[in-house]
Amino acid sequence: MKHLLLSFALFGSVTLFAQSAHETAYSFMKTGDHDNAILVLNKALQNSPNDEQLLQDITLAYYYKKDFTHARDYAKKLVDLDNVDVASYQIAGTVYRALEEAKEADKLYKKALKKYPNSGVLYSEYGELLWSKNDDAAIDQWEKGIQADPSYAGNYYHASSYYFFTKDKVWSLIYGEIFVNMEYLTERAREIKEQLLKAYKEKIFLTSNSDEGKPTSPFAQAVYETYAKQNSLTGKGVTVETLTMIRTRFILDWYAKYASKFPFRLFDYQQQLLRSGMFEAYNQWLFGPIENLAAFEQWTRTNADAYKKFTAFQRGRVFKMPGGQFYGVTKKST
């Protein structure tokens, strides 16, 4: 019993020492003093050579120092440990990608996803790796990430951007709007808002005799057909005002015909805003600053109460997509 208690005491002291080293190193890294962080972490690793947190820290310290060779040495030690977490695989993958060691990174992400098949961030980063090699199989990973972990925003961002540059008429709109509701305060959100407005102008209302780009899944076909019914409203162009009318009619028609067959959180949210009188403000927030900033600012001054009501509502909630509402078609990798 005495030996057992001593072992627990030693374990506790090592853990406290490792935690202290982590906090000290983190403070150094925040100020850009990576050399001192590495010094502290090296000493701590002498006592706890297999501590996952310390190995993560020192890998990141070398990575931020741009000493990728040493970062790789520790990344290998890190992912060779038993039962490492998702963050460890992320860190190691980032190092391999910085070194442009695509084969090693590919093996790593496959290993990681075998262990964590529901990790949205791993699918997102594996897709980024594939896309850096101009491999269209990247979209398979992003769609798998959306299906497995629908509350993670990154896969919607990448999938929306991917589909925008294809002939597809629907998915850049769907995934893009989901993304900006999940992550609306970043530069990526502004990028996707610009893309959304372009997609409404350049894709969904342009007709063609060709089948190229037309939806192949029942859900996407239903979305396309419901938007196509509003085509007469585009006679004066696609503006914030016409989009508000188009999207209002879309929601009314969708809930009259397709909502029970295809439950979808994004459309539920749009219907909620429509019923509560906030849908116009939402569309102004979504498209106004992109289309014409001066006109948007004038609208918010003229409709100050309506816009304040919407933004207060938006800040007070978190938009998440639930499981079981994946209607994309994951293509087979080539």
Automatic annotation (TrEMBL):
<feature type="signal peptide">
    <location>
        <begin position="1"/>
        <end position="18"/>
    </location>
</feature>
<feature type="repeat" description="TPR">
    <location>
        <begin position="86"/>
        <end position="119"/>
    </location>
</feature>
<keyword id="KW-0802">TPR repeat</keyword>
<protein>
    <submittedName>
        <fullName>Tetratricopeptide repeat protein</fullName>
    </submittedName>
</protein>
<dbReference type="Pfam" id="PF13181">
    <property type="entry name" value="TPR_8"/>
</dbReference>
<dbReference type="Pfam" id="PF13174">
    <property type="entry name" value="TPR_6"/>
</dbReference>
<feature type="repeat" description="TPR">
    <location>
        <begin position="18"/>
        <end position="51"/>
    </location>
</feature>
<dbReference type="InterPro" id="IPR011990">
    <property type="entry name" value="TPR-like_helical_dom_sf"/>
</dbReference>
<dbReference type="InterPro" id="IPR019734">
    <property type="entry name" value="TPR_rpt"/>
</dbReference>
<keyword id="KW-0732">Signal</keyword>
